[in-house]
């Protein structure tokens, strides 16, 4: 009796078979649901991929249309430019527009027009959006000046080139009719500036070169050399240091082509303040300067060990000083205009007296 009863065992077997059957049915349903989910997800992915392919295809077609349109506009501008840009018998190549506006979202709104006379008697040839100069174009003035480049809201914006009536050229970035960003200005005599601009003035780092091969590279502020810079002259002389309002001013080093060297303070292109001056023959002055001359207190040393330590005035020993011989012997004295006029002693009260 008990659990060992055959009837009980048969009942348990039937219940177990029923549970197993139910579990299998549940598993089948779960697998079927997963298959449905995967199929739906796959269909959704295929649909998204199809939409993306369609979008990319349409985008490619639109970009191709815009490129062809831009190529045609660039060709028309180049042809027009070649007929009007000629200064002093010097041929200037048409401006290279490139495809800066290839991704312009307003490309479909642009309209290319031929020569259009403006209120100020200037003539514009190029793109418009409605009646606003926007896009690529060429603007010529009555004095002969010509701008080729990009426009926005009737003003030069983006890359462009302005050729002045006298033949001088600025090519670079523009913002609201003013040079802004990186640009190159070429003067009629061949002098050239390459660098940063703000509000139509050199501002930031730039390099300026002159026809005689002199070169400045450094900082500018509001159109003038200001800040750290390096100036190299055609004879090989080099200054490196501070500039202010186009002048050497502040702390800097100057090396002359003949070997002389100065390091120290400057005011208005002159050695002024504390500094060190060295000669090729070994002489060395350490002390104060005034308008390019030794003035104040300073020490002049010779390569054989001699030296003068004392006062200076207008590039000459003047006042109290001490002269040291190569042997180490020292004699104090008083100098006037570079000549020693007497010895300097101290009396019993330790006051200086001249003999």
Concise overview:
The protein has a domain at 2-71. It is built from 1 helix and 24 strands. The protein has one helix at residues 6-84, and strands spanning 86-87, 90-91, 111-117, 123-129, 132-140, 146-152, 155-163, 169-175, 178-186, 192-198, 201-209, 215-221, 224-232, 238-244, 247-255, 261-267, 270-278, 284-290, 293-301, 307-313, 316-324, 330-336, 339-346, 352-354.
pLDDT below 50 for ≥5 consecutive residues: which ranges? 1-11, 346-355
Shape, per Cα inertia axes? elongated
Distance between the termini: 148 Å
The biggest sheet, with number of strands, parallel, antiparallel or mixed sense and barrel status, is: 22 strands, antiparallel
Please count the helical segments. Answer: 1
Task: Specify the structural class.
Answer: alpha+beta
Mean pLDDT: 86
Strand content: over 45%
Element pattern in H and E: HEEEEEEEEEEEEEEEEEEEEEEEE
- Number of strand segments: 24
């Amino acid at each position: 009796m008990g659990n060992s009863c055959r009837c009980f065992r048969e009942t348990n077997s039937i219940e177990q078979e029923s549970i197993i059957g139910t579990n299998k049915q549940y598993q089948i349903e779960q697998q079927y649901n997963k298959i449905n989910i995967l199929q739906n997800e796959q269909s959704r992915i295929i649909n998204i991929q199809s939409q993306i392919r369609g979008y990319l295809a349409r985008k490619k077609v639109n970009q191709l249309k815009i490129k062809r349109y831009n190529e045609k506009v660039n060709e028309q501008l180049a042809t027009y430019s070649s007929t009007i840009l000629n200064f002093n018998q010097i041929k200037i190549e048409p401006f290279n527009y490139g495809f800066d506006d290839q991704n312009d979202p307003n490309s479909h709104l642009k309209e290319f027009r031929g020569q259009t006379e403006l209120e100020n008697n200037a003539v514009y040839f190029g793109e418009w959006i409605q009646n606003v100069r926007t896009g690529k174009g060429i603007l010529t003035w009555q004095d002969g000046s010509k701008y080729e480049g990009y426009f926005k809201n009737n003003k030069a914006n983006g890359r462009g080139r302005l050729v002045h009536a006298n033949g001088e050229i600025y090519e670079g970035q523009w913002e609201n009719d003013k040079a802004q960003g990186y640009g190159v200005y070429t003067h009629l005599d061949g002098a050239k500036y390459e660098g940063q601009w703000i509000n139509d003035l050199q501002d930031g780092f730039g390099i300026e070169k002159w026809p005689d091969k002199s070169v400045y590279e450094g900082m500018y502020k509001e159109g003038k050399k200001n800040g750290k810079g390096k100036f190299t002259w055609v004879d090989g002389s080099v200054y490196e240091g501070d500039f202010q309002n186009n002048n050497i001013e502040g702390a800097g080093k100057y090396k002359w082509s003949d070997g002389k060297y100065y390091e120290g303070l400057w005011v208005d292109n002159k050695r002024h303040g504390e500094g060190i001056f060295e000669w090729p023959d070994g002489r060395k002055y350490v002390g104060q300067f005034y308008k390019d001359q030794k003035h104040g207190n300073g020490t002049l040393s010779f390569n054989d060990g001699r030296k003068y330590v004392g006062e200076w005035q207008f590039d000459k020993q003047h006042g109290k000083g001490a002269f040291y011989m190569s042997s180490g012997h020292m004699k104090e004295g008083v100098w006037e205009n570079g000549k020693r006029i007497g010895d300097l002693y101290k009396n019993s009260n330790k006051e200086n007296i001249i003999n």
